[in-house]
Automatic annotation (TrEMBL):
This is Putative glycogen debranching enzyme N-terminal domain-containing protein. GO terms for biological process: carbohydrate metabolic process. It comes from Kitasatospora cheerisanensis KCTC 2395. SUPFAM superfamilies: Six-hairpin glycosidases. Residues 198-218, 295-384 are annotated as: Disordered. The lineage of its organism: Bacteria, Bacillati, Actinomycetota, Actinomycetes, Kitasatosporales. Residues 18-193 form the Putative glycogen debranching enzyme N-terminal domain. It holds the Pfam family GDE_N_bis.
Amino acid sequence: MPPRPQPSAAHDVLCVNAPAMAASGPDGQLRGQGLHGFFRHGVRTLARMELRLGGMEPLPLQGTLTSAAAARFVGSVRVPGDLDPDPALTVERLRHADGAETVTVRNTGGRPARLPLEIALGTDLGQLTDIAAGRRSADLPGQVQPAGLRWAGQGRAATVSARPSPHAVLAGAGVLRWDLEVQPGARWSVDLRVELESPSAGRPPTGRGQGVPLPWSEPEVRADDRRAARLVDRALDSLGGLLLADADRPTDLYTASGAPWRFGLTAADALWAARMTLPLGTRLAAGTLRATARRQHLAPQPPAGAARPSEAGGSDASSSPAAAGPAAGGSSAAGGTGAASPAQSGTPQGTGSPAAAGAESGATGQAMDGVIPGPLRHGGPELPASCTATEATLLFVTVLAEAWRWGMPRAEVAELLPAAERALGALRAAVAEGPDGPVGFVTDFGRTPEERAARPGPARCEVQAQAHRAALQGADLLDAFDRPGAGEWRAWAAELRERFREQFWIDDLSGGRPAAALLAPDRPVPALASTVVHLFDVGLGAEGELHEGLLDREQARLLAQRLVTPELDCGWGLRTLSAKSPRFNPLGHRSGVVRVQETALAVSGLVDAGFEREAEILLEGLLEASAHFDHRLPEMYAGEQKVADCPPVPHPAACRPAAMSAAAAVHLVLSLAGVRPDVPSGRVATRPASTAPLGALELTGLRVAGEPFSVRVSRIGVAVVEEAPSFLQLAAS
């Protein structure tokens, strides 16, 4: 069997403006190899665009992004017979992800240049998913059309048009030709436009339309460490290139997961991006929450007058006061959406919950009620793959609660509250109840109760942290909107804390560490992985305070120290798996690479927990790595130990840009100012890093309650709020 081609984007110049992108090598030529081409809606509209001037390819001089959506390529060509050692002709290509390219030939020589310009074109109209798997179809035959070429096949068609029109079109060879005469000191240009005539079936997501503003403010960052400003600026530029909207909701913007490999909505990634950019406003969070709520699993409702599953199945879900309250409470907080079922209320219930009753009757739709779907994610060598639905469903509650604290309008929060209640119901349904599983801990939402009972899955460390945070922040929302169940959720979170500290902590010679997962009581998975950083991400609570975490103070101290040892910190950030593991692989997705988001979460979480020395070590590693990636951090890179004068090794399958890494770069810098608002209570606190790891830091153009907010942090870590909404009371730092 011949080896399968392996397309790589690690060294490609990739322009992105969702739902379009373009990729080539640094010479700008599209050669139809690997990922090369223009894409739209997941279809490669053009695979080849090879330019020759006088029969020669320009000598490549430079190829670089000028923004996330655009690139510039410069090459030179010597005029035949020219004795001057300096090249007389330069060729500039300005490319935009949307399918536009301008080619300009400049003559800086002393005599006219008379030579042909030929551009060879072709396409397979292939799907991005096939190309990512290394499959490449033959080019389709071209057809001449006015000012260009057209290709049709597989129910799609694409065109390339040129202005000015070519002097000759060779359809069989797919060549457009111009006979140029460029005088000394003059230039000649042609504009090319690539278009997809027939997008994929249905109404695919669109990009940010004309007139739709960016869903965040554009901050100004000034710091003694100049890398910070460049990092934030380019991260936001990258996020802008990933913005999508459902076709029927053009103002509800959310981010694609990343380009080129996951160029669509992954709910968990989009919610992380929305959460990490909350200091720049709540519009991205609102759009993302609405988009993910529309995709949330809803249990089929019985016909009017029919018995509910709990009424027909013997076990009465509404027997407890907590469960009975929401069902009897009339209309939901959103208004006009009807009464919430017990599962929708999200209150912790026993085995007689609607989810469990639905499973007993074989109603899978009922059992999956409230789950926000997501694809499988590689679990690394120690654990099976996990469904991102778990992370997305829990994160939905967190993003809604924190957006509310940052000033998302109450009516918008109320509209989304039923979806958050359903997500809490899904959390309760995913708590393992034994006898063979990790009793009392949260397992995978992507499996039905029958599947979890037949094959108990692991309770992952990070999932317990996310579930604990969602329970506490969900309780905050339930209290604020006069919904029942808050007390039960806080009690459940307290029980989870106690169980976690007893069963997840592994004592060793270094003092101890949390297990990566628990398979059953007394069966921890001892691997040390970067996912433990989620234990420091405890979530924003009332009056600018943070919620309690799953670790006690001593456990947190030991973990903080462990994170900055060479076992996990490679010098560029945190490895996903300890270098001491026999399964460590510096290029492994979950067995050794550095994932930017997790290192950024570690930095902010360590600062919040008071472990600033450790945070500063990890911060410096990420900042130094970013400089080697032109301050556009990819999704991940190799976790090889840092060596002087050696840059970090790119990962061939990394998305760049990626929503989570770009948002994490923003979060990395903005979180150091420690802005913690609680708009519903009329307060905002600042808790900056006292060590001022970036030196003096000034942030203007932030948003709290939709209004401008500016803060300045001195070199000794003292914060001064310079601009804030007048109705907010400032808490001392």
